[in-house]
Design a protein that fits this description.
alpha+beta; Jelly Rolls; 9 helices; about 20% helix
Length: about 425
């Protein structure tokens, strides 16, 4: 993926987007220096791309950036430095699908339900659920609609949002692209057009994060399916992006995390599965509780800046996350001096050596179900840290936890890991810096 035709830059600004795919077939936006920064404006993921028939995945992510010196088998550290919500409002909710408007997967193999054109070009007529129209025949062509949906407006400081009624939802729909603050090069239809307006008057705290961020998979995938749960629908499918389970496991990088701790201050360590790594960003959200229970949340346009560094020789199957301290489960936070002193007294009483040198680390796991995602995270932790899976389970039970990023199958497995193990894989210094150890 890294190309000699692109100069190596200290910082790259990205305002180009893919049409729902991510992989080696997607051209890069440039090459950034090891230690450099990537800045971008990110269009909404999920609903906008979902209702746009031309898209071959459920998101609209940035064109990937290669990182100087990153080779297959390395890892790339992505430090999230900044995010800013641009959108004034957005719409979301639980979904329904129109079986006539897709083949196997409504996110991927879309078609016009009237003329049958595959991934048809489309245009907008009016507002409401029928506003997305096939360019060829004029029929309503969206594969998705709301079961129950809401429109939520944000305050000027982007600290809270409030769900609105029909009048405001219609006003936003009539000026949808501007209210969503879609970038000039974004090709999605804004979901505000559908003007959903259930549960008006609900106040929600905002805490923006990035739902799809990481490195490029080794084959072209629908961007929303770069994880073990959504990606499971590719197995045996009858469209061009079908894969076997083994091929999916080898290719994916689990960039579609939907983990709400992936926010400014957090550090994500990602596998490199193509030359240059190919860092991309998409699917920013204004807020989300653990689990993303409605499967979708508050999609936004956002500014984002990340710093990237290469760790040579760290071969990972999926991401490692170092959240900000306040986002860690309380049981997995670094020990206080008082706790260590109590531990030393216990160690002296029972004639054992206190293992003081431990630090928090999270392994991301994904799979078709939460249980399978948890098993995947445990296997990844055991492999990376050279521990038996039994030891991982025991440490995570008494010094960590498992949290749900997204239903049906993305989890964060947290533990206090021995720093000597983290040093051995090359991330000890990074962890010490993140948690002030």
């Amino acid at each position: 993926m890294q190309s000699v035709t692109h100069p190596i830059k200290d910082e790259i600004y990205v305002d180009e987007y893919t049409g729902g795919l991510i992989g080696p077939g997607v051209g890069i936006a440039g090459v950034v220096r090891d230690g450099g920064r990537i800045s971008c404006v990110v269009p909404p993921g999920c609903w906008g791309p979902m209702i746009t028939p031309e898209f071959r995945g459920g998101h609209e992510v940035t064109r990937p950036v290669a990182v100087e010196g990153a080779h297959i088998g390395d890892a790339i550290v992505i430090t999230i430095e900044r995010m800013r919500i641009r959108s004034i409002a957005t719409s979301s909710g639980t979904m329904l699908t129109n079986p006539a408007a897709f083949g196997d997967d409504p996110f991927v193999d879309k078609k016009c339900p009237n003329c049958g054109a595959l991934w048809p070009e489309s245009h907008i007529e009016g507002t409401g659920p029928g506003s997305v129209r096939c360019e060829r025949c004029g029929a309503s062509a969206s594969a998705f609609s709301f079961e129950e949906g809401y429109t939520i407006a944000f305050d000027d400081g982007r600290t809270v949002g409030l769900t609105v009624g029909l009048e405001a939802a219609h006003e936003f729909a009539s000026n949808a692209r501007e209210i969503a603050a879609l970038p000039e090069r974004s090709r999605q239809h804004p979901i505000l057009l559908f003007e959903p307006h259930t549960i008006p008057g609900v106040l929600a705290r905002l805490r923006p994060f990035i739902g799809n961020i990481g490195t490029t998979p080794s084959v072209d995938l629908p961007d929303s399916h770069n994880a073990g749960d959504f990606g499971h629908s590719l197995i045996g499918a009858r469209h061009p992006y079908a894969l076997t389970q083994d091929a999916l496991d080898r290719a994916k990088t689990d960039g579609h995390l939907d983990t709400n701790e992936v926010r400014p201050g957090a550090v994500l360590i990602c596998p490199v599965k193509v030359e240059g790594g190919g860092v991309y960003i998409g699917d920013c959200h204004a807020n989300q509780g653990d689990g993303e229970l409605s499967l979708h949340t508050t999609d936004i346009t956002a500014d984002a800046t990340v710093r990237v560094n290469v760790i040579h020789g760290l071969t990972l199957d999926g991401p490692i996350l170092l959240p900000v301290t306040e986002d860690l489960p309380s049981i997995a936070r670094p020990y206080t001096q008082q706790e260590l002193e109590e531990g030393e007294r216990l160690a002296k009483r029972y004639n054992v050596t206190l293992r003081r040198e431990v630090a928090p680390v999270q392994f991301i796991g994904s799979g078709p179900t939460i249980n399978e995602a948890t098993d995947n995270a445990i296997a990844r932790a055991g492999s990376a840290l050279r521990m038996t899976q039994a030891e991982v389970r025991n440490r995570c039970t008494i010094t960590g936890s498992v949290e749900i990023g997204r239903l049906p199958g993305v989890v964060q497995l947290t533990m206090l890991a021995p720093l000597e193990k983290l040093d051995a894989i090359g991330i000890g210094a990074l962890v010490r810096q993140q948690y002030g150890l």
